[in-house]
Input
Amino acid sequence: MPPHLFVLFGATGDLAALKLFPALFHLSADTDAPFVVLGVGRSDWDDGHLQQAATEALVEAGTDEAEATAWAEKTLRYARTTSYGELEPVFERAAEIEADAGTEGNRVYYLALPPSAFPDAIRSLGTHEAERQATEGAGWGRLVIEKPFGHDAASARELNDIVHEHFAEDAVYRIDHYLGKETVQNLLVFRFANAIFESIWNREQVERVEITVSEPNDAEGRAGYFDGVGTLRDMIQNHLTQLFTLVAMEPPARLDADGIRTEKIKVLRSTRTARPDETVLGQYGAGTVGGEEKEAYRDHEGVAKDSETETFAAVRLHVDNWRWTGVPFVLRTGKRMPARRTEIAVVFRTPPVRLFYRSGEPGMAPAPNRLLIRLQPDEGFHLAFEVKSPGDGFGTTTQELDFCYEDAFGRLPDAYETLLRDVAKGDPTLFVHADEAEQAWRLYEPLLDRGEIEVHPYASGTWGPDAADRLAEA
Ligand code: BG6
Output
C-alpha cells in the first residue's frame, strides 16, 4: 500500500465504528508505509476522543485492547468542522500532519456522510484539490463516496455532475461494499474460469435466477436514515443489482475496471425497467427473531406510526438480450428474517421428457437442478441434482455436491479492507462507475415514488409477505 493520509469524513458515525476502523486497522497491520487517518466530524472531539472511540470499536470487533490502543494513538487524528462547505480547519490539520508523517502528499477523502452533505463537501474538496494539485509534487487525491449515491436517476446525475466539475472519473471511487466481498468477486472466476458452467448459463438451460439477501437485523437505531430511504433504495438498487449484473453479464474483454464495468452497464441497459405489478413490498410487524420478542417497525423511535417505508422488497427483472430473454431474475431482500443469508439460486430447466417421479410422490416431477451460490454466511456452492432412490423403482431424490470456502481457505478478508486497499493502490475495478449508478436507478424509477404499490405487513421472524413467493413461481 502506498503512503497516504486517509481523511475520513463521518469519523464519529456508525459506519466508521462498525466497518472502517476495523478495516483501517487490518490495512495498517499489513504495511510499513506511512499511514495516518484524519477523522473529521462535527462533534466537539479531539484526537484522544477519536482514539478512544476507535479503540472501543476495535475491541468490540475482537481486537486485543492494548493493540487497539497503540494503533489508535499512533494512527488517528481528529479535526472538527462546523460546516462541510468550509473545510479550512481540516486542510490546515492535514497539512500539519503531512509536514512530518511521510505520507508524500497522497490523500484519500472518504465521505461517510449523510447524502445532504455530499454536494458541499465535494465542492470544498474539489476546490482545495485544484489548488493543491497546482503545486509540484503534491501527491494524488482520491475521492471515495459511500452510498446512497442519489435517491433516483435525476439526483444521481446531479451528483455526478457536481463530482465531475471537480474530479476526474478515475479519481472517484463510489463504494458498494458488496463488490469487496471475496465471494462476490468469485462470481467472475466461477463463471469465466469454469467453462462447464458458462456453457449452460443462458436461456436454453436456465429457467430463472433468484437473488436473495435476508437479514435478521432491523432498522432500529438507524430510523433517521432508513425511514427516508427504504429497502428498494438501501439494498435493491445497489447491493442486489450488483449481484444481478455479475450473474447476467457477458465475459469481459479484459479483466480490468473498464472491461468489467462495460459489461455490467450493458446488462443494465438491456434490462427492462421494473414494474409495480412485478414488485412486492413489505414492512415488518411485531414477532420473534432468534427467540426474542421484537416490536413492529412503526414502533421504533423516530418512525412515524403510519410510516409506509418498506423493509422488504422483491422485484422481478427481465433482461432483453440474446442470452437471457425469457428468464426472470427475482431480487428479494428483507429485514427481520429468520436467518442471515445471501445467495444466488440458478434454477435449471427440467428435462424435455418426464421419465421419472419424485420419490414417494409418484405424481410429482423430479426437482430441477439448482446451483446455489452462497455468498454469506458459509460461503460456498451447492449443486443439487437428482439420484435414484434405492428400492423405489424410478423415484428420485435430490442430493448435493458442496464446496465450502472457509474449509478450503480459512478466514476471508472483510469487504472494506479489500476496497480501501484498492483505493490506495488506485485500482477502480471494484467500484461503481458514474453511468452504472445512474443506470441502476433507472431500472427502479417506476417503483420509487411508490404510487399504488401496496406495502404488505409481515411478522418479524418470517420470510416476508406470501405475495413475494408468487414472483418466483410465475
Ligand atoms: C448496508 C445497508 O449497505 O448493507 C444495511 O445500508 C444492510 O441496511 C447492509 O444491513 C448489509 O450488508 P452486509 O455486508 O451485512 O450484507
User: Anything to note?
Assistant: The pocket of 6-O-phosphono-beta-D-glucopyranose is lined by residues 215, 217, 234, 342 (CB under 6 Å). The chain has a mean pLDDT of 94. The CA atoms of residues 39 and 78 lie 5 Å apart. The first strand starts at residue 4 and ends at 9.
